[in-house]
Design brief:
With 283 residues, this protein is mainly α. The protein has eleven helices and no strands. The longest helix is centred in the first third of the chain and has 41 residues.
Length: 283
């Protein structure tokens, strides 16, 4: 009788573990490699085009060398406006979050009123359609005249920039609530508060979060431009100050940070929307 060959226990257990590692590795590579390929190609083209001595812009290698201290020590604070990127970004984010929060509260409230009232829609919609086309920075001189200070003026510019998409999308969401939902509310004899909590807000939430996502993106765009004019600590002022000092590499690094933070702000609002609407709002 031939002897029965028995596999070692450790080898038998290692096989599914390795399979899982390979599966996870392939999934991670599938997520990371596609966006990395165009990034590497772009950096290579940029390096080739700007490597010459007469190039107007620095190549990536020189940007990295010029800004190494700025990248590795973002928390330095030498007093006044001489601060690391962290403090400039933090100041900008604080202004954006305050102005955007006010716009979200006011925009959802006004949008709900317009969506529920035909009279309010007819009276306010033409005004909003005109005001929303005014460029954000056009509001800044008026805000400076009214508030006499750069800080509240910047917050007002963020507020007035972000509120219109929130108002319009909320109103559209309220008006698009299916008639069947309204009939169910009548049959169940829901009071206004119960109707708002159980029917109106859940049904309109995908539209509301679409407006909130557009609003946060516009807020981030507006604060950078506004800070270039009002001065003080903030990423917009940092970029403008770097331009006045001919520090092109610093500007490029700041723009990369601005883009990354704008991306995460958008994704954060989208994630909240998915969680609140249980996946109805797209991420």
């Amino acid at each position: 009788m031939a002897p029965v060959k028995v596999l070692p226990v450790a080898a038998a257990r290692a096989t599914p573990w390795r399979a899982r590692v390979l599966t996870v590795g392939r999934a991670v590579a599938g997520k990371l490699v596609p966006p990395l390929v165009p990034l590497v190609v772009l950096l290579g083209i940029w390096e080739l085009l700007c490597a010459g001595p007469d190039a107007a812009l620095p190549p990536p290698s020189r940007v990295l060398a010029d800004t190494w201290e700025l990248i590795t020590d973002p928390f330095y604070d030498r007093g006044g406006l001489d601060k690391g990127l962290f403090w400039h970004l933090l100041a900008s984010l604080q202004r954006v979050l305050l102005g955007y929060s006010l716009a979200a509260i006011g925009g959802v409230a006004v949008g709900t009123l317009i969506g529920q009232s035909q009279w309010a829609m007819r009276s306010l919609d033409p005004l909003f359609q005109v005001l929303r086309t005014v460029p954000p920075l056009a509001w800044l001189p008026l805000a400076l005249a009214a508030f006499k200070s750069g800080e509240p003026s910047a917050i007002f510019v963020i507020f007035i920039t972000a509120i219109w998409p929130i108002v319009i999308n909320t109103a559209v969401g309220i008006r698009n609530i299916p008639e069947d939902y309204r009939n169910v509310a009548r049959v169940l004899r829901l009071n206004p508060l119960e109707y708002a909590v159980k029917i109106m807000i859940p049904a309109a939430a995908p539209y509301i979060f679409t407006g909130l996502r557009i609003g946060i993106g516009l807020s981030w765009l507006a604060i950078v431009a506004a800070e270039m004019l009002i001065g003080g600590v903030g990423i917009g002022f940092f970029i403008w100050d770097a331009w006045n000092s001919s520090l092109i590499s610093d500007i490029i690094v700041a723009l990369i940070y601005v883009g990354i933070i704008g991306f995460f702000l958008d994704r954060s609002v989208a994630l909240v929307g998915v969680l609140v609407t249980r996946g109805t709002a797209t991420s």
